[in-house]
């Protein structure tokens, strides 16, 4: 024990024992040419593995990725001084690595970026990260929708184009030359956002006035909506972002009894589609339905739980299979129904279709195994 | 995944609308796979007045597989053996059984309650009891009643004891006679299962 204490004093003279039991040290540890503040609390039994280490943010930043290794060393080392030496060498390695990887940002580069951000307007800058290499910039459109663009500068900036992450329905490619500025990128973003105003106006109307079963919180890039029609029927539409008023791709979900009349209505009413009208209006007249809306119904009425797992959401899945017997009309998750039917001795499969019986009413039921996106 | 989603809902349902004469709970809040249940013996059955304790184990593949249910309280019944195992089609997988995921712990317990009231001697687990049930029903009823009194009425007896100390002696006398009768029973029935059960009861 005394040996250990002497070792600590010799090797880490700047770490001062805080009590007579030598269970707490406070002070500085030197790594390369810098000193970092550190506090060490040993448990009463002196076992290293339960030691509490606190250090200043700089050292914490350096050791951030090495959490596991540090814990492992704590378990392996015989005494505190041996562990601190290990800790020092881990930090040293990381520091050397950082120096190689990150060429220091040139000052004029920073000044340039600041002036470019100023041109965009500081009120539009949502966040700037610590290394000043990525930014989030927002744009509020006419309908008060807030669009955020994330810009990550290339290490060869400005010779190489930055990486841009946006929430738009169509892939956003920027035009970038060596003389381009962040303002150019922002203007291109604004231009793109303007292109899809019509799409979002239409989709927002649906979001407001109908029950959207999927997606839960639609992003700006989502062009699909699953709209509830009745307790056991819904439609899934996919809108063309460039032509939001034209007839979207429509899929009918639910029991045949419920969806067949809708299909027939659609075929006979196709001529009624008027591109000058909104999507909601057109869909209602096409299918001859009034969509249940949040003003006159509850969402629970349309999001019936799966009869097997008793829940609505199973991971990303919602109950899509419905028993065709209208008296039963029990919904199931595809995964649940397939798993049940597969386990039965009467299990039959032909190509991608599984044949079986509804676990509730024993009416024959078929499931098409679709490959999920 | 399905199991946990479902058990959460099922336990909620037990709290909100428990089936008649049945209660069910988890032994440990974090473990939804080990349940304990109580079934109150139905009126007009030889199990009337008794409270029967059951243990339920929810398998990993639940609800694609049935729950495993066992009686902890000894019961004299053609379809329930000395180890508490229950012969009931809804507790077995098809084609032999009739388990379906539309059933749940609550419906299973209700059908056990029904089985207690209506034994099925065609598919017995205890042949002797089944024979007795078919050909000497009064004997069956008597023994079943005695077993109920002996094993399933502990709580009930205790309550009367503590509430009215004067009635203590006749009560305990009654109990004694029951034990005597079961001793007689031991001779006619294989002794081993009975011992088994008495041991189990002591442990509980």
TrEMBL record, chain A:
<dbReference type="InterPro" id="IPR044037">
    <property type="entry name" value="FANCL_d3"/>
</dbReference>
<dbReference type="Pfam" id="PF18890">
    <property type="entry name" value="FANCL_d2"/>
</dbReference>
<dbReference type="Pfam" id="PF18891">
    <property type="entry name" value="FANCL_d3"/>
</dbReference>
<feature type="domain" description="FANCL C-terminal">
    <location>
        <begin position="303"/>
        <end position="370"/>
    </location>
</feature>
<dbReference type="InterPro" id="IPR043003">
    <property type="entry name" value="FANCL_d3_sf"/>
</dbReference>
<dbReference type="InterPro" id="IPR026848">
    <property type="entry name" value="Fancl"/>
</dbReference>
<feature type="domain" description="FANCL UBC-like">
    <location>
        <begin position="111"/>
        <end position="194"/>
    </location>
</feature>
<dbReference type="GO" id="GO:0036297">
    <property type="term" value="P:interstrand cross-link repair"/>
</dbReference>
<dbReference type="InterPro" id="IPR013083">
    <property type="entry name" value="Znf_RING/FYVE/PHD"/>
</dbReference>
<dbReference type="InterPro" id="IPR016135">
    <property type="entry name" value="UBQ-conjugating_enzyme/RWD"/>
</dbReference>
<dbReference type="GO" id="GO:0061630">
    <property type="term" value="F:ubiquitin protein ligase activity"/>
</dbReference>
<dbReference type="GO" id="GO:0043240">
    <property type="term" value="C:Fanconi anaemia nuclear complex"/>
</dbReference>
<dbReference type="Pfam" id="PF09765">
    <property type="entry name" value="FANCL_d1"/>
</dbReference>
<feature type="domain" description="FANCL UBC-like">
    <location>
        <begin position="199"/>
        <end position="294"/>
    </location>
</feature>
<dbReference type="GO" id="GO:0006513">
    <property type="term" value="P:protein monoubiquitination"/>
</dbReference>
<protein>
    <recommendedName>
        <fullName>E3 ubiquitin-protein ligase FANCL</fullName>
    </recommendedName>
</protein>
<feature type="domain" description="Fanconi anemia complex subunit FancL WD-repeat containing">
    <location>
        <begin position="7"/>
        <end position="90"/>
    </location>
</feature>
<dbReference type="InterPro" id="IPR026850">
    <property type="entry name" value="FANCL_C"/>
</dbReference>
<dbReference type="Pfam" id="PF11793">
    <property type="entry name" value="FANCL_C"/>
</dbReference>
<dbReference type="InterPro" id="IPR043898">
    <property type="entry name" value="FANCL_d2"/>
</dbReference>
<dbReference type="InterPro" id="IPR019162">
    <property type="entry name" value="FancL_WD-rpt_cont_dom"/>
</dbReference>
UniProtKB/TrEMBL annotation, chain B:
<feature type="active site" description="Glycyl thioester intermediate">
    <location>
        <position position="87"/>
    </location>
</feature>
<feature type="domain" description="UBC core">
    <location>
        <begin position="2"/>
        <end position="153"/>
    </location>
</feature>
<feature type="region of interest" description="Disordered">
    <location>
        <begin position="158"/>
        <end position="204"/>
    </location>
</feature>
<dbReference type="InterPro" id="IPR000608">
    <property type="entry name" value="UBC"/>
</dbReference>
<dbReference type="InterPro" id="IPR023313">
    <property type="entry name" value="UBQ-conjugating_AS"/>
</dbReference>
<protein>
    <recommendedName>
        <fullName>Ubiquitin-conjugating enzyme E2 T</fullName>
        <ecNumber>2.3.2.23</ecNumber>
    </recommendedName>
</protein>
<dbReference type="InterPro" id="IPR016135">
    <property type="entry name" value="UBQ-conjugating_enzyme/RWD"/>
</dbReference>
<dbReference type="GO" id="GO:0005524">
    <property type="term" value="F:ATP binding"/>
</dbReference>
<keyword id="KW-0547">Nucleotide-binding</keyword>
<dbReference type="InterPro" id="IPR050113">
    <property type="entry name" value="Ub_conjugating_enzyme"/>
</dbReference>
<keyword id="KW-0808">Transferase</keyword>
<keyword id="KW-0067">ATP-binding</keyword>
<dbReference type="GO" id="GO:0061631">
    <property type="term" value="F:ubiquitin conjugating enzyme activity"/>
</dbReference>
<dbReference type="Pfam" id="PF00179">
    <property type="entry name" value="UQ_con"/>
</dbReference>
<keyword id="KW-0833">Ubl conjugation pathway</keyword>
<comment type="similarity">
    <text>Belongs to the ubiquitin-conjugating enzyme family.</text>
</comment>
